[in-house]
Amino acid sequence: MRGREGPNSGITRLALFIALAISCLLISFQRNSERHTSDLGIAAQEVASPLANILAVPLRHFEGFLSSFTERRRVFDDNIALREEVAILRERQARYDNLANKVARYEAILGVDTETDIPLRKIAARAIGETDGPFLRSLLLNVGSRDGVMMGNPVMSTEGFIGHVINLGPNTARVLRVSDLNSRIAVASAKSGAPAILAGDNTPLPKLSFINQPDDWGIGDRVITSGDDGFLPRGLNVGQVVKGKAGDLRVRLSSQTSPVDWVWVSPYKRILAPVETLEENNQSATAQDDEGTQVIEASNAP
Amino acid sequence: MNYLSSRSPIKKARPALIAGAVLFLTSAMTISGLNLFDSRFGFEFLPLLVLVIWPRHANTPLSLGLVWLAGLFTEWATGDITGQWSLIYVLVWGVFRPEMRGTPFAPLGLVFVWGLICLVTTLVLFLTGYFVYGILPDLWPIGRQISLATLTLPLIVLLRRAILRRLKDYDDWG
């Protein structure tokens, strides 16, 4: 198409104005609404992921090359520290084995099952994209529904819980990180078992809210997923309790310490609420109607 | 083309299409980033570099349509607020495109324009984010994104110059 329109002719100005107005309109629709992804969003994610997959290889090599300098500088100090840590951990391992045997015996005597419901199967994935913007904390994984990933599945790194899957394509999955503004996770103190909600606020230290008994929470306590929301299994390592600047309780995330590259998805099947059958519903509705009629009749009686 | 000429240049579809394809490619790259010095350097500002060096002779309506769609694609790919990046791209393209500038690729002028673009983008991100989420943005990620894109700017300009030297229709890109 050829034309001799000036850079700021009437038509250009009008087209610009329309494009700006549509963009503003799209933004205004999202005010105070839940973040959800359209099919077009998932399609765009699927289109961009092969490029991100290709880009990830040289980028990770470049990061590795730069970090290797600092790693080499620290290698001797790290070696000494690790040897000391291994010696301590060997002794702890022996104690842990004894305790595990003891607990297993008690469980057998009492007939209880204290196992967490974390699935043993794990789906390994690579974080090919990471959005760490002013308002958004998310990851893009190179696995999707074809690999067995489901909506809401927890995503872990070697350090701990990262987030959960919020949208899913055939080959990609987007993960909402715990620190994101829209993230709300049911957590518990590993020490006291006290429940709370971990609310992301786009800071590295998400806030612990809805705490009933503040005494049950101490600085340094380990925080795990409680499983109360039915979406996540109980017992995933989230982080440690720290005191915020305003004196409130916050969590230093275990997964925040290092950049995310390889992760795994737990194909956890969410616990669904029991569904009443149609007959049961009808029966209960009829019983309520009968009671209602009786009450009305009784009130009308002289 | 003479800048003071009263006649506007002939607008061609090919430069717009090629620039649009590069813009889409960099938009797809926005889902990636670099982890350096325990910080994340996102690629969100890289597509803006393409807008800075947009061909002057590119067809205007076609360019506008491609720029707006690339903005939408960025939002969908990154999961950002829908309309945010398309607003930024259109605004940056509409105000700062090379044909609106006197000496579009003079080094000092380019740095000045890039500074303005970063300022406008930050302001729009700030306002739209506050409007939708009701919280103030974390400015550190934006700062890191800007610094990475700023370091890439000279490379992009040199690359553009090197490619243009090999093109027969140099005037269409100017």
Task: Provide the descriptors you would attach to this structure in a database record.
heterodimer, A: about 300 residues, alpha+beta, Thrombin, subunit H, six-stranded antiparallel barrel, six-stranded antiparallel β-sheet, 3 helices, 12 strands, about 20% strand, globular, disordered C terminus, B: about 170 residues, mainly alpha, Arp2/3 complex 21 kDa subunit ARPC3, two-stranded antiparallel ribbon, about 65% helix
Can you describe this structure?
The complex is a heterodimer of chains A (302) and B (174). Chain A has helices at 10-29, 39-110, 278-300; strands at residues 123-132, 137-141, 154-156, 161-168, 173-177, 184-189, 195-199, 207-209, 222-225, 237-243, 249-253, 262-265. With 302 residues, chain A is of the alpha+beta class. Chain A has two domains: 10-29 and 38-92; 123-265, Rod shape-determining protein MreC, domain 1 (Thrombin, subunit H, Beta Barrel), CATH 2.40.10. A six-stranded antiparallel beta barrel of chain A has the order 1-2-5-4-3-12. In chain A, strand 10 (237-243) and strand 11 (249-253) form a beta hairpin. Mean pLDDT of chain A is 80; it is low at 295-302. Chain B has one domain (11-172): Arp2/3 complex 21 kDa subunit ARPC3 (Orthogonal Bundle). In chain B, a hairpin with a 2-residue loop joins strand 1 and strand 2. Mean pLDDT of chain B is 83; it is low at 1-6. The interface between A and B is large, with 63 and 61 residues.
